[in-house]
Amino acid sequence: MQERQRLINLENISKEYDGVRVLSDINLYVRKNEFLTLLGPSGCGKTTTLRIIGGFETATTGRIIFDGADITNLPPYKRKVNTVFQKYALFPHLNVFENIAFGLKVAKRPKDEIKKRVEKLLDLVNLSQYGKRSVESLSGGQQQRIAIARALINEPEVLLLDEPLGALDLKLRQDMQLELKRMQQMLGITFIFVTHDQEEALTMSDTIVVMKDGFIQQIGTPKDVYDEPKTAFVANFIGQSNIIRGTMVRDELVNFCGADFPCVDKGFGVNAPVDVLIRPEDLLIVPSELGKLQGIVQSVLFKGVHYEMIILSNGMTFKVHSTVMQEEGSTVGLDVTPFYIHIMKPTITAPDRELEEEPV
């Protein structure tokens, strides 16, 4: 399939505040109609990156190219983007219809056009009967939808969303994840979404950009980032992980915890130190005599769809998810299919999307 057009290019973007660097040489492109998520812990630089794209911050170095034009010094109101913040900043003295229509009224659009476009957006956010309601009478999820509709009314090419679901409770946040993805697909515009929540990123994104300390750690699809993390940080931040120091005996054979395990990785050298990643759901509990490793069950927690067990083996503590409970104190065997062993270099790198991208 032909690769989608690149809409935004960030070229060597750095940002300093009072001599402290918070972004370091960010190189990133965003494609047209893409749902791209900037993911990372507090202070990693994701919101700063979003604000630079929106024009609310100016990069210390580097430039921003939007659809072929340099917009580095263009003010926010001249950019074809709009922003939804965590605090929705709705106008309490205006009803729902008037909040959404505000941008069009400022632009002095005809009343008939305003009515038609507002009603279309109310339908899009599933609030078609709420036009005359006070915004203060709405739930948090409804207010969030109104904020999105207001941001979309001027038909931006890009919608920037800065942790817009952070104030919602868990169930509503999960519902809104699906709503946002539905809206993005229906509208066919580019969404750039900032979050520290891995579930949000995995649920909604076409592409995830994992950030730490002002650097990009990895860029890829949700499946790639989850299944093939490039660093221990990414592995731990995206889902739960068992990360064990091991030795790559040779191609397709790794040793950890005193046992050799076939794997599918190559190119790490002979007898080379590596980090071994195994997700908790990929570890197999087998009869003790059949396991490559033997361990003692330290604790068992019921998580609804599986049991989470801590198993101590050869001085290493493993987290294991299984639908079959093992008794605390029992001795079990552990094994893992070669495909589910992921080998990583123990050093941290900051990859370039140019090198990792596959055509979509």
Which SSEs are present, and which pair or pack?
Elements: E1 6-17, E2 20-31, E3 35-39, H1 46-54, E4 61-66, E5 69-70, E6 81-84, H2 96-106, H3 111-124, H4 140-152, E7 158-162, H5 170-187, E8 190-195, H6 198-204, E9 207-212, E10 215-220, H7 222-227, H8 232-237, E11 242-250, E12 253-256, E13 259-262, E14 272-278, E15 284-286, E16 293-302, E17 307-313, E18 316-322, E19 331-335, E20 342-344, H9 353-356
Parallel strand pairs: 3-8, 3-9, 6-7, 7-8
Antiparallel strand pairs: 1-2, 1-4, 4-5, 9-10, 11-12, 11-14, 12-13, 14-20, 15-19, 16-17, 16-19, 17-18
- Tell how many strands the DSSP assignment holds: 20
Percent range for β-strand residues = 25-35%
Query: Unreliable stretches, pLDDT < 50, 5 or more residues?
Result: 348-360
Number of helical stretches of at least 4 residues: 9
Assembly type? single chain
Task: Explain what the structure shows.
This protein has about 350 residues and is α+β, with helices and mostly antiparallel strands. The protein is about 25% helix and about 35% strand. The protein has two domains: about 5-230, P-loop containing nucleotide triphosphate hydrolases (Rossmann fold), CATH 3.40.50; about 240-345, Beta Barrel (OB fold (Dihydrolipoamide Acetyltransferase, E2P)). A six-stranded mixed sheet has the order 6-7-8-3-9-10, with helices on both faces. Strands 13-12-11-14-20 form a five-stranded antiparallel sheet. Strand 9 (about 205-210) and strand 10 form a beta hairpin. Helix 2 (about 95-105) packs parallel to helix 4 (about 140-150). It starts with 5 loop residues before the first strand and ends with a helix.
